[in-house]
Amino acid sequence: xxxxxxxxxxxxxxxxxxxxxxxxxxxxxxxxSYLAVLEGLWLKTGExxxxxxxxxxxKIFAIAFAMGVxxxxxxxxxxxxxxxxxxxxxxxxxxxxxxxxxLTAFFLEAGFLGVMLFGMEKVGRKLHFAATLMVALxxxxxxxxxxxxxxxxQTPTGYEVGANGQFLPGESWLAIIFNPSFPFRLVHTVLxxxxxxxxxxxxxxxxxxxxxxxxxxxxxxxxxxxxxxxIVVPVQIFAGDMHGLNTLEHxxxxxxxxxxxxxxxxxxxPLYLFGIPNDAEQRLDYAVGIPKASSLILKHDLxxxxxxxxxxxxxxxxxVAMVFWSFRIMVATxxxxxxxxxxxxxxxxxxxxxxxxxxxxxxxxxGPSGFVAVLAGWITTEVGRQPWVVYGMLRTADAASPLAAPxxxxxxxxxxxxxxxxxGVGTWYILRLMKAPPHTGExxxxxxxxxxxxxxxxxxxxxQNPGGDPDVLPEDxxxxxxxx
Length: 484
Known about the structure:
It comes from Qipengyuania mesophila. By secondary structure, the chain is mainly alpha-helical. Helix 3 (84-118) runs antiparallel to helix 4 (125-154). A hairpin with a 3-residue loop joins strand 5 (388-390) and strand 6. Strands 1-2 form a two-stranded antiparallel sheet. A two-stranded antiparallel ribbon has the order 3-4. The chain contains 14 helices and six strands. The protein has a domain at 181-392. The radius of gyration is 27 Å and the shape is globular.
């Protein structure tokens, strides 16, 4: 790949693997909580329908969770292979935080996941429900630590720079963990995960309603998903606005790129709906905008001045085109979600929630919308931070390992082939499970009895021997006789 240097290939590789990985936690975080709600409702009401839905989605959760774990392991290796300088300089700060994620969240999930998947017939109902709650809590705690790490890279605080150039913890770890952007990003990302799950569940419910409107299980899952959409999407829009104001305060160049503001606006900035960013000429071509609307949104004042990229050195500006368009995809998807949620409220109040086929078709189309929104938002966040890997302190170009482009290119190609093969099959199987309608008497996750059931091998049970000790095997008795 002669036209790509090692730095660009390393960035593409990490972007590819993290995008693949982010799909699964964005789904499993919300789905774990949904499973906890279903099991809780079953225990409270005794309705078989909730238990059936729990077992239906439990199978899907098991596969999505496994693929999330596998895809996440790869990224940690890249810190050492492709980003060794970053690992060396930022390791004293981010290393302990990522270790806390393993010691708390991952151990919590791993400890109770087996009980959740296979223990319903082996432990009491309350204990099984506690295990489900612990898995749901573990997914949230995992998001907490990972977002704390990433938020520190966006808004670094609570550190000091050592004599060797390393970022070292300062007087308080709380300043590092709860850095200025972390609370906003945590709320925004977790709500996005819940909405991702809600629209997947709603899409599956809509699919089965289009086939059979009398399916009670499909009705219930569709109703629950639409309640989530109608209630949480407006909250998410508000949380996104708060996150945007925080970003304007701490990362103004990112907001300038999101808005397409190449030039400063001393008397109120327009909200550009569309346009073609032109970095070479530092302008937005074919711009279509609403006068002063951007100042109203960002400053809550029509005439508030907003600085543009003309106040930022050229070598510190993010790639505007990618940030500009990914931000608009995220916002457009969010308002489309809002539209479906409000449509469902209208149908519910008219008693037509299960009868309006066009609503069901819209919900089916919007099934993957959560994944689109979280990926677009992630691209906006990460690309908008460039050219910094630790904002304002460590450039991306200075954080990469000294590797040759062919080496990085070869591993990138291998990742692309393996990821599409492995995770493509996993995704196909999840879709296959979703295609089957939920029904009374769902079996849930089955444990196979093939092969050893003990990690140390098979321990034979006691064998009755005529005239001898029932715990002594025949071959042992022969060896004992020969010895005498």
